[in-house]
Each structure stands twice: as C-alpha cells, then as structure tokens.
C-alpha cells in the first residue's frame, strides 16, 4: 500500500571532518565547529527536521556540540548519543535534561551500545557483545526513572543507584524520544521494551523488511509498538547518469590498497552484527557495488557504520524511498559528501518530490513574477517573460 505521508528527514553533522573524495586527502575539511554551524544553519533553513551528531573517539563530543549548534539554529532537533558505560546514568540524565532545556525541547537521544571493540576498551568497557545489552538494560532503568520522574533506585548486577535524583526535568514529557539501531538478537531484545524509534542502516528492502518484522514481534511481546527510521547517504543529481558519475567520482581517488586496509580494520576490530551485514553487501569489491536498484555500497568500502547511498535523479530516489516507506520507514537520517553542498542538493532536488515543505519563514524573492537567474549582476536577475 502506498504511503503518501511525508518522511521525517534529518541530516548529518560530520563531526570528525568532511571531504569530497572517500579514502583520499584531496579536498578534505578538518573538524571545525564553525563549519558544523554552517551545516546546521543550512539544514535549519532548508527544511530538515533535525541532525544526527555522531559519537566516537574521532568525533567532537556530541552533547557539547549539540549545545553549541542549538544556539545557532531555531527549529532543528539534535539526535545525540547516550553510550552506557562511558558515564553513569545519573550523569547522562543531567546532560540530557540540561540540553533539552537549553534547546527548548529539541533533543533526541540515540542509544549506542556497540561499535568498535578496541574503542570500547579505550573507554573502559570490556563486556562481551551480548552482555553489553544486559548492562544497557539496567542503565536505562535508572536513566529513564530519573528523566521521567526525577527519582531512581536499582541494585543491579551492573548498575547500582541509591536514591538517585534529578531535580531539574527535561522540557519534553515524559522524556526526550529514544532512538536505537542494532541488528543482533540481543540488541533487538534489549530495545523492544524501551525505545521509540528503531533505526536500520540502508540495506536492500527485503533485508530491511525482515528486520522490521523482527523488531515488531519483539516490541509486541512487551505490549508496545515502535516506529522505524533508516540511515542512508544520498547522491542525487538532475539525471540518473549524472548521479552515477558523481558516485564514481566519490571513490575516484580510492586505491585498492586503501580499500584492503580499511576492510581489514572493519572486519577485525568490530563485533557489530550490523557492521558485518554492511560488509557482506560488497565484500570489499568495487565492481559489485550496486547491491539493490540504485542502492550503492561504495561508501562502505572505507567508512564504518552506514555504508550505502541511494543514487539517482530525484524521481528515481523518491521511488526507492517510497519502497522503504511502504515497509514502515517514516524517518530518514541522511548525509552526503561534502555535507554542506549536498544538504542543498538533497533539499532543492529531492524534497519537492517527497512533499517536504520548505521552511515557514522563507522570504519572498519577488512580488509574484517568476525570475530567471542571470548571474546576479548589478541590475538584478533577469525578469521572466510569459512569452518566452
């Protein structure tokens, strides 16, 4: 059944740096808070509902960066990570409440339990894969108790909290929404009882359908329903041919040696089931990258996490997104390289096809007549003639 409801569309803040070519030092942009503010302001004006701020050793701290960007934006929401084990649930509850207050209720919380085992060890987390989710379940008993009621007690196996209190509540009630992505059985079982939105990386529709069915069954066993989102890169151009040329150009400076080195790291330093599923889409082969119609796995040759992009014209990509939407996806977390320019391309080319409205405060460009861009000369733009 076709779904005509507009997708909730978020963008991405590349807080570890940005660039125009994957696996290359050509035209790179280092981590720079002012650049991130440019992207956030553009996303705010262009009609994106929010931004994902990633977390990890190579990234700026997500709560602090979100607070900085909140001061530069008006409507934009901020999806930031809570990583159980890197701080106590009481500390994260205070962070979340304060950020929700200073942003006037614009906080979304992204639960991140897994990732690189070596990075987790650097953060002092040494639990085996499935046990990390048992720990996270106890963590969120305390966290949710605090942000929802201001009080929590737990004498658990991993978490102990005696008369924990949160005096200042968040703006959103009962709490900011909880997002989560994890492909293992342990991850799905953990999420079923607490999350509001389940996120999947951009796998082929048949695989996404299986995952959604799995999550729905797990949530139903707790008497709950969850909504669904997808994390994808986008390469959208006016024609399909131009889009595929842009995809090829994105990896045009990527050598086979760089791919092999990156794939070795991704295989050996992560116990993430989701990461393994991303790798299996292409197996490091650059000649087998269209893994489903218009779904291109070239990003995953070197990038951790989300490794696929939708490639094509606005009409083509809109059709592919409607396939995901018919499965139950209602939210897209998008990105493109470089992120400032691609935020404009996606909004200007794709949003009209998706029925996503432009910002309400957009100023009038004329008194109603059409304009033809003439290069922005001293005399203004060329006036449109109905006879032309």
TrEMBL record:
It comes from the Bacteria. It comes from Acidisoma silvae. Catalyzes the desulfonation of aliphatic sulfonates. CDD domains: Alkanesulfonate_monoxygenase. The gene is ssuD. This is Alkanesulfonate monooxygenase. It catalyses: an alkanesulfonate + FMNH2 + O2 = an aldehyde + FMN + sulfite + H2O + 2 H(+). Its EC number is 1.14.14.5. Pfam families: Bac_luciferase. SUPFAM superfamilies: Bacterial luciferase-like. Keywords: Flavoprotein, FMN, Monooxygenase, Oxidoreductase. GO terms for molecular function: alkanesulfonate monooxygenase activity. Belongs to the SsuD family. It is an enzyme of class 1 (oxidoreductase). GO terms for biological process: alkanesulfonate catabolic process. Residues 9-330 form the Luciferase-like domain. PANTHER family: ALKANESULFONATE MONOOXYGENASE, ALKANESULFONATE MONOOXYGENASE-RELATED.
